[in-house]
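Structure first, sequence second, as always.
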């Protein structure tokens, strides 16, 4: 797995293990960082790029973090304990940490302290330094005059990481990070992902097949637009056929039904510049909830079916984070037309990337078609179904067999012609 993993311990003693996947720039190393604070101790949720308004969150006591993996993990079935969770172990002896977001002193005091006073020599890449002298993470080399390198790194031995977890660990939540551009009425884009979305396993699988690199990726020099890092987001390091890896990912999801899935953006939410704050807030919120599921009235289908479900708003330590940061179409600077244009960009991207997996040896569960009537069926609310995330509570303990192909994506007719709140066709229809 191309992921970071962290054991989160709340101020109340609850524990939650989150594995964060995604393409380069998707926030893997950042998931191991404590949320960056303003000088007054508050968290800057976001800054509106048009009005310069700011929204802040007061979080008196953050969760304690126990890092497990930074970029690569091993998860052979032999590690599993038979309880439906994904068990993994770190695949690296040293961590390759990006620091392009550290542009001055004090942004990440923990990482800065570790690299300024390391217990052993470190390797810095694309950072100004002299042998035997103190090297500062924010002094990035320049690709050209006035243009800093977008991909400065430091390699840190795992053995000197504070509070690092040793051995294997069971994952409770798998999150997926996506770099998103600003989205406004004037310039619609796919920057329509809220702070977090809850995904059914089927949709989580599709996001891992397309693995978008997203906006302003610091590791990739490319033309504008969406591109894919390849299946599992680890394809640049893999060999063999894509469809074989797609099958492995699907079997992994089927074999770990107790794992839950979320999608988080970074950089922008609609007209708000947010950096990596969405995944830090998501981490703090989900850890505080522990194993508690969302009730049917606490979540709703996202306007874009590829985004699964949204809670609409959340309360963190008594402070409400409202709909603007979850239902982006409600932002006055965005609106439904720009949002739907962004949804079309995502839809087109999925159609383009998924067609390469439609081979004869694709896993049968990935091919299985849902009934034509699914276009007219409402999204599940009070009872789980094949497209219902495990986050939802239910009045019965009887879950029907999981059908991972009944995914929440639409191909034809287009979004504007399908009533909001209806489920959609499956993967095989999308790829037809």
């Amino acid at each position: 797995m191309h992921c970071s993993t962290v054991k989160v311990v709340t101020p109340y003693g609850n524990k939650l293990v989150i594995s964060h996947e995604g393409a380069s720039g998707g926030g893997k190393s950042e998931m191991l960082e404590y949320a960056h604070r303003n000088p007054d101790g508050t968290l800057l949720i976001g800054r509106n790029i048009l009005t310069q308004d700011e929204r802040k969150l007061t979080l008196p006591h953050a969760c304690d973090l126990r890092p497990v993996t930074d970029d690569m993990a091993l998860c052979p079935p032999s590690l599993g304990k038979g309880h439906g969770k994904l068990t993994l172990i770190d695949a690296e002896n040293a961590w390759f940490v990006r620091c392009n977001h550290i542009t001055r002193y004090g942004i990440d005091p923990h990482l800065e302290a570790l690299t300024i006073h390391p217990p052993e020599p470190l390797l810095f890449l694309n950072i100004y330094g002299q042998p035997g002298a103190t090297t500062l993470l924010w002094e990035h080399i320049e690709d050209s005059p006035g243009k800093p390198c977008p991909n400065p790194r430091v390699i840190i031995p795992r053995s000197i990481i504070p509070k690092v977890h040793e051995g294997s660990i069971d994952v409770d939540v798998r999150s997926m990070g996506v770099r998103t551009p600003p989205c406004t009425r004037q310039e619609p884009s796919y920057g329509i992902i809220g702070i977090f979305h809850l995904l059914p396993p089927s949709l989580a699988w599709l996001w891992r097949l397309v693995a978008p690199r997203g906006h302003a990726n610091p590791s990739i020099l490319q033309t504008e637009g969406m591109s894919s890092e390849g299946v599992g987001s680890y394809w640049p390091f893999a060999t063999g056929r894509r469809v074989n890896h797609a099958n492995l990912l699907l079997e992994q999801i089927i074999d770990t039904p107790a794992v839950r899935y979320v999608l988080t953006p970074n950089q922008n939410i609609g007209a708000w510049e947010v950096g990596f704050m969405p995944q830090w807030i998501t981490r703090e919120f989900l850890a505080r909830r522990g194993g508690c599921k969302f009730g049917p009235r606490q979540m709703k289908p996202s306007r874009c079916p590829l985004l699964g479900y949204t809670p609409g708003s959340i309360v963190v330590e008594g402070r409400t984070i409202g709909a603007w940061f979850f239902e982006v179409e409600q932002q006055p600077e965005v609106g439904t037309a720009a949002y739907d244009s962004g949804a079309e960009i995502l839809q087109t991207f999925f159609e383009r990337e998924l067609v390469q997996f439609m081979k004869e040896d694709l896993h049968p569960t990935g091919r299985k078609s849902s009934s034509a009537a699914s276009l007219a069926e409402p999204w599940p609310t009070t009872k789980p179904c094949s497209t219902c995330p495990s986050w939802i509570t239910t009045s019965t303990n009887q879950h029907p067999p999981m059908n991972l192909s009944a995914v929440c994506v639409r191909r034809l007719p287009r979004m504007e012609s399908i009533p909001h709140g209806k489920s959609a066709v499956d993967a095989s229809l999308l790829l037809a």
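Margin note: The chain has two domains: 3-89+165-338, 109-160.
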